[in-house]
Queue: 3 jobs
Job 1
Amino acid sequence: MRKTLCILLAALCGLSLSAQENDREADSLRYAYGRQQVKNSTRQSGTAYADTLDTGSPGVKVVLYNNGTYRFVKDPARMAQEKVFTENWDTHAVDPYRENPDKLPERFSLWIVDTLDSYVCPNVTRPRSKFGYRHGRRHQGIDLPYPTGTPVPAAFDGKVRISRYVAGYGNLVVIRHASGIETFYGHLSERKVEAGDWVSAGDIIGLGGSTGRSSGPHLHFETRYRGAAFDPAWLIDFESGTLRHRLLKVRSWYFNPNQRYIQDVDDEDEIFRTDEEDRLLAEEQAKKDAAARAAAEAAAMRYHTIRSGDTLSGIARKYHTSVNELCRLNGIKTTTVLQVGRRIRVH
C-alpha cells in the first residue's frame, strides 16, 4: 500500500508542476474542478485507524484505516497555524468580525472542498424553515428536522471556535473552515466538542435537540463568511445531500437578509467565468455602453440652418436653450458673425 500511495502522491505533484507551467490550462482545470458537485460522504465518525504516514509534502499526511481504506488529509497541527484560524478568533462572540457586509467585495471565490477535504451533509432532508425574515425577525440560517438525541456531524473539516450555550441558539457549536466560512449548529441537546478541537467532516459534534428559542426538536444550521450570514442553500442541496460545487462563487447580494438561494439566478457559465474572462467581458460591455451612449446622443442632436436676420439670442429663445450653450455646442463666441446657410447645433 505504501508503494501505491507514493505513486499517487507523485502523480499529484506532477499535476501541480504542469499546472504551474501553463497558467491558462491550470485556470481552466481549476474552474472545471470547482464546478464539480460533491456527494454526501457516508464516512462514519470514529472509524478506527491503523497508522498515519508522512507524504513528503508539508502539511499532508496519509491516514490508514483498519478496514483497509486510506485518505490524504491536511495536518491539523499545521492547519491550525493558518491565518484563518488565528485572526478574529474568539471563543465567546458569535460574530468576532463585527464588519458591515457592504465592505465585502462585489464578487469573490471560496474553495469549499478541495482534493484533501471531505464533506458530510448535516441532514439529508427538506428544510423546514428557510433563510430570510420570519415573523418579522431575521432568520439567518435554515432549520432541518432533527429528533432529540440524533448525532449531528460536522459538515466540513475545521476547527471549533465556539462550543457553549448562547441565548436563542441554545447549545451552539460554531466551526471555522479553511475557506473562512463558519458553520453554526444550534439547539443541540448536547455538545460533544470543545472550542479549539479540530474536527473532520462527519465527526459528531453534538446531538439534536430543542434548547434555546425553539418550538421543537430541529437543527438550526447557518453559514457565515466574516460574520455575514448567507443562505446555506447556496452551498448545499439538502434534499439530495449534495454540495452544489467545490468552488463557491460569491456575490455581495448573497448577504442581503432577504436574499434566498435562487436556482436559476445565473447561467453556470457566468457563475464560473474566470477573472480574466470577467475582465474581457467587462471591457467589451464598456465599449458597447459607450457606443450606445454615443448613438443616443447623436439621435438627440438637433440643428438649425441660419437665415437672414437670425441672432444667437433669437435662436436660443426658439429652441429653449441659452446663448452660452449654443456657443459651447458649436465652438463659437457670442461675437461670432452668423453666416447664412450655416448649420449650427442647438441640442
Job 2
Amino acid sequence: MRFQDIEGQREVINRLTATVDSGRVSHAQRIVGDEREGSLQLALAYLQYLCCTDRRHHEGGDLRADSCGQCPSCRKIASLQHPDLGFVFPSPANGSPSVSADDYQAEFRDFVLATGARGTLDEFNQSLKGSVSTSMIRATDSANIVRRLAMKSYEGGWRMMLIWHAARMNPTAANELLKTLEEPLPGTIILMVDGGDRQLLPTIESRVQTVRLAPRDTAADMPGLAAQYAPMLVDWLRLLFKLKMKELSAQVDKMAALDRQQLAQMLAYAQEVMRECFLHTAAGVPVTIGSGDDRFDSLFPGMITANNIELVCDALNDAQHAIERNAYAKLALMELSFSMSKALKKR
C-alpha cells in the first residue's frame, strides 16, 4: 500500500512522512478514523514508508513523499508477509477462552487484501466460517504481542505490530500491554488503528500518540464549509494574535454555542485551511480557501510553516477529540486558543 493509493488525507500523510524523515518516530501511535476514510490503508502505507529503502520525495504537488513500492520491504508489506510485521485484531471466542488473533491470521490477510484494507470489522466477522460471537482483543493477544516484540528483528530493521480496532481490547489485555508501551525495546513500533466507534481505555490512550483522519468529504466540501464557518474562524484567528481576553472569550462563546456536530465540522474545516496554507508556504500551491476575506486569504497562509504545522494540527486534533468525548466546549476551545496562539508565533 502506497500513500498515493489513498484518497485524500494529504495533510495527515505529509505530517507522518515528515516525522519519519526527521527520525522522530514515536514507538506507540494510534490512527483514528473509519475504514472507509482509509485508516487501515494509511497504517499499512505508513509502515511501508517506514521500512522502504528507496523513499521517493516529490517537488511540488500535494504529496511530499511516498514509498517506492518496489524494494523487498515494500513488496513484503504490500503482501502482508513481512516477517517483522505482526497483526492483532478482535477475534471471536467461539467457546474457547484461549483463542487469539493468531488463529485467524490467514483469514485476516486474505480479507485485507481482498477489500483493499477498506473492509469493516463486521464484514471481517461475517467472512469467517462457523458461528461468530462478539469479537475482542484478549490477554492472550497481548501476551503474543509482548512475546513477538521481544524477539530479534528478522531483517535487522523495525519490529512492528499493527493492532486493528485497538479500542476493543479488554482491560486484562490492556494491562498486559502497559509495560511494553512504557518501556519498549529500541526499534519497536506499535501502531493502533481505531474506527472511532469506541473509546480506547485511558491507561492505553495516555501512552500513545494519536492521529485523527479528516472526514472524507472535508476537502470536497470546502466551499460549503467556508460559507458556513469562515467568518467565525477568521474572527477567531485574528484574535489569537492580540490575545485580548475579553474579546477572545466572547468569540469562544459564539463558537461554543454550535452543537457538537457543527463544532467537529468547523474544526475539520480549520484543519483543511491549515493544510492548504502549509502547501502554499512550502510548495507554492495556490490557496483556495474561499473565506470571502481577501486580506485574510492573502496574508494568513504565510503564518503556517514547517516550524508550526505539526503544533497547529495537533492542537486542532486534541480539541476535536475532547469535543467528541463530550468535554466542556468552551474550556476545550480556550485551551485550543492558547495552543494555537503559541504555535502561530513559532513561524
Job 3
Amino acid sequence: MFNAFPHIASIDIGSHSTILLVAKKEDGNVKALAQKMEVCRLDEGNLETLCEILTKFRGMAHSLGAEIKAVAMTEAMRNANNQEKILQAVERAVWVKPRIISNEEEAELSYKAVSKIYGKDILTADVGGRSTELSIGKKFLSMPVGALALSEQMGIIPGPEYKKWAKEFFKSINIKPFAKKDTYFVGGTAVALGMLAKEIKHFDAEALEGQTIFVADIERVIIHLSNLSKELRNAMPGLEQGRGDVIICGLYWIRSLCEKLRIDSIKISALGLRFGLLCD
C-alpha cells in the first residue's frame, strides 16, 4: 500500500526557539533527515509569529514525506496564563494536538535520546531558554534557569553580580548526585558553543555530535564574544536570529554547571528532546 508519509517528524516549542525534526527510523534509532530552527520567544506574546513558523514547518515536513508525530511545549507554556488559547492556535497550525510536557518528562526525553547512542551511565544537561534539566535516568533535577531568563536578569554581558547570584542559587540546589559524570549538553546554547569552539561555520549535526569541549574553551569563547559588538556577535555561526543576545549568559551558566558538577570538560550532542519525542 502507498504510504504518503514514509518519515516522521517532531516539533519542540521552547521559550526561546522552535525546532522541527524530520527523521526516519533506522535499526531502532531516529536518524535526522532535516532540521530547522526559528527563534520565537513565546512568552513575549509572539503567538502569531509562532503560528506562522509552525505552518511553514508543517508544509516542510509534509513536503519531505513526514507525518508530524509529536509537538511538545516546555517552560514558556508551563507558566502561560492563556494555555488553552495557545494550544488551540498551535493545533490549527500543525494539525496535531500539542502537549505541554513536565520538567520531569523533558529531562527524561532528552536523556532517552542521548543515552540510546552513548549508553546509560551518563548525565544529560538540557539548557533551554528558561529552564535547565539534568538527568541520569532514574533521577532528574530541573532548575528555573536558562539563557533567556539570565539575559533578562543580568543583561547581555553579566557583571560582578552574576557570581553572587550563582553562589546563592546553588545553596538551594542539591547537585551532588549528578557530579563527576560523563556529561552531554544538549540544546541551542550547547550547539552554539560547539560551533563556536570548534569553528564550525554551518550547523552540521554529524560534525558536532560527541565533540569534547573543555572549560577553558568555554572561557575563551566567552571572552571573544564579550569583546564583539552586538552586530558582529549576531553574525557569528550559530548565533543567528537573536541568539547573540542570550549566548553569553548561557555560557556563563554552562561554566557554572561545570564547576558545580566538578568536571573539566563536557560533550556536545545535537540530539535532545525532539529526538526523544520520536523514540519508542
